[in-house]
Amino acid sequence: MNEKRGLSSLEPDSVIAERVRQQLSPFPEKFRDLGEPGELRRMLTGTKTLSGPRVRQQPEDFTEQYLIEPVLHGLGYWNPMSKEYESGNPHFVRQPSEYRNVEPKRPDYKLEHVGDSVVCLVEAKAANNEQVDGAKQHATADVKQYLQSDTFCRVLRDQEHEYLVGIGTDGLRWTLWSKHLATGEIIGERPKIDLAAVLKANAQRQGTIEGNPRMSRPEQRRKLSDTLVPAFAARNLEQHVR
């Protein structure tokens, strides 16, 4: 089936989900190129933290480059350095410094043009530093610091924003927290998504790790469309929070 024709028959969230699914491919491919499929397998099937020496790079930088930023792109957030980027489109900004006078801790990303009522920050960690359950929830811990900062939230409220949104991710798990700036109400893990099974099926289909994939491409797309896309996609984020 022609790819464009196939995508045109899908609902908008399913189109985004398919793009995210495709953007997951570079991560396992990089492990294959490095001759480290075992490192990928251990990470996807357990709680092992990504090893910097094995990927020849700082683990967090590797995760951002080959997993987090591709997923953000699939969700509709452009890299502003991309030739295809058009001014005014949703995009990510690395290491934003605009709030440095009121918030000394700089977030890893800010998502721009996601809605006038929302300020959205992203905290990124190396793969497997954010588990669904248990003690390893380092991205979540950083997100909470922003939401609990009275000074930072007061500045955003004075700028007439309604919501502060914090996304925490290690590329495999994605969690979204929000704070209503007027009332101070914080809602956490709305939702928290685990992409490990989709990544594992993707890696098995590529032949990067052994085994038959338990999820077909349409099943991967449906899982992403049902879980990740409704909350995290650029077209949905503001409405999801409201």
Write the layout of secondary structure elements.
Blueprint: H1 3-8, H2 12-23, H3 26-34, H4 37-45, H5 52-55, H6 59-74, E1 91-94, E2 109-112, E3 118-124, H7 138-147, H8 150-158, E4 163-169, E5 173-180, E6 186-187, E7 192-194, H9 196-206, H10 217-226, H11 229-232, H12 237-241
Parallel strand pairs: 3-4
Antiparallel strand pairs: 1-2, 2-3, 4-5, 5-6, 5-7
Give the tags.
242 residues, 12 helices
Structural class estimated from helices and strands: alpha+beta
Helical fraction: 40-55%
Domain module tally: 1
Q: Please give the number of β-strands.
A: 7
What value does the Rg take, in angstroms?
18 Å
Discrete helix count: 12
N-to-C terminal Cα separation, in Å?
38 Å
Strand content: 5-15%
Task: Report on the architecture of this protein.
This protein is α+β, with helices and mostly antiparallel strands. It has one domain. The protein is built from twelve helices and seven strands. Strands 1, 2, 3, 4, 5, 6 and 7 form a seven-stranded mixed β-sheet that branches. The radius of gyration is 18 Å and the shape is globular. It starts with a helix and ends with a helix. The model has no long low-confidence stretch (mean pLDDT 92).
Summarize the entry for a quick read.
This protein is an alpha+beta fold. It has helices spanning about 5-10, 10-25, 25-35, 35-45, 50-55, 60-75, 140-145, 150-160, 195-205, 215-225, 230, 235-240, and strands at about 90-95, 110, 120-125, 165-170, 175-180, 185, 190-195.
